[in-house]
Every structure is written in structure tokens, then in C-alpha cells.
Amino acid sequence: AQSVSQHNHHVILSEAASLELGCNYSYGGTVNLFWYVQYPGQHLQLLLKYFSGDPLVKGIKGFEAEFIKSKFSFNLRKPSVQWSDTAEYFCAVNALLYSSASKIIFGSGTRLSIRP
Amino acid sequence: DTGVSQDPRHKITKRGQNVTFRCDPISEHNRLYWYRQTLGQGPEFLTYFQNEAQLEKSRLLSDRFSAERPKGSFSTLEIQRTEQGDSAMYLCASSTGTSGTQETQYFGPGTRLLVL
Known about the structure:
In chain A, about 0% of the residues lie in helices and about 55% in strands.
């Protein structure tokens, strides 16, 4: 069965620090990978996604992620964080359903706190 | 694009009562999903609709749970005889239903249920 692991449960950084959030998935076949963000009091929003092609994908708000197939990883990065990046970040993978649709399997999330 | 909407946003109920939640997907999105998110965890898949047909149900969806999408537009999720373990955030997502796993699901704000 597919699964997603986020090893950092809570990350605390100062403004302007660089960010890297780890994400590993378990699945041997073709994967589609996502990072979703949930700002305080708001709903889940898509940050970026990887379907195919260039393994380095760029998302909104200066975030990027790199798909490394050999390491089963899809880490999220941002060179300089801002206080407004305080949020919960979820790594996710699509799993095919029998009906040819797909469900999303989420990691447990990483809470990012930015000190002003 | 008005996004996915859910109603109510919050619901407090007593154990044993029935509750019903509504989801309005992005217009023209033919796929609709329900997820449940408990504290400290990522969302977990509950069920999926392609138009009005409910095609997939997770084992998480006990007999007390029922979902409908009668006209292929909005959907309702009903929980009968609620239990304290049902306390969670119930999320709805929709997508345009491209084939396989290359689809992007857009999430609503969720309904937070508290069972006393």
C-alpha cells in the first residue's frame, strides 16, 4: 500500500532562514506528488505538484520541490521564509482507485512556525 | 471560480444525534471526494463520487455514515448515532476527473464536528 512519511512534525525557523521539509513515499510505480499547505484558519491549498517531466517543480509563494525517484523523496524547499509562511504543510501522493479515479494519501503534516 | 464550499463550518452535537454536512463542488467538476482529518493527522479518504454515482468507499466509512450526490452537483454526508470518535474535520474536494492519477483535487474549508 502507498504511504507518505513526513519526519519533521514541528519546525521552528527565524525569518529569512532557508527551509527544507522532508517527504518520503512508498510506492514502486508511477507516482504523482503534491504539497498542500493549510494556513491557520484556512482550508487546504495546493502549493505545487509533480506529474512528470522536470523533477524540480516550482510552486506558489517561492516554494519548490524536487522529486528524487531513487530516494523516493519529494522534499519541499524555500530559500528564505517569511512570517506569513507559518502553516501546516502536507506532502501527498495519488493512489489509483479501482474506478480509475484516484484518492490522495497524505502524510501526517509538518507544522512550520516562523519567528518574526 | 468560487471554490469548493461546505456547510456548516462548525457543528457541535451530542452523542447519539444525527448530523448532515453539505458540500458544493467547483461547478463542472464531475468528481467529488470526502475526507476526514483528525487532530495531528493528514486527511484520510472516505468516499468518492463520479457525477451522481458513489464508486468508492473506504473501510473507514462505517454503516453509520452515508453519502449522496443526487443530481451530480452538491453532496451530503450524514452520520447517524454520532460517537465521540467521530469528532474530526470533514473535508470535501472536487476535481475535473482526468484519467488515472493525474488529477488535482481542490479542497473546501471543511466542517469541524465535535461530538460531546
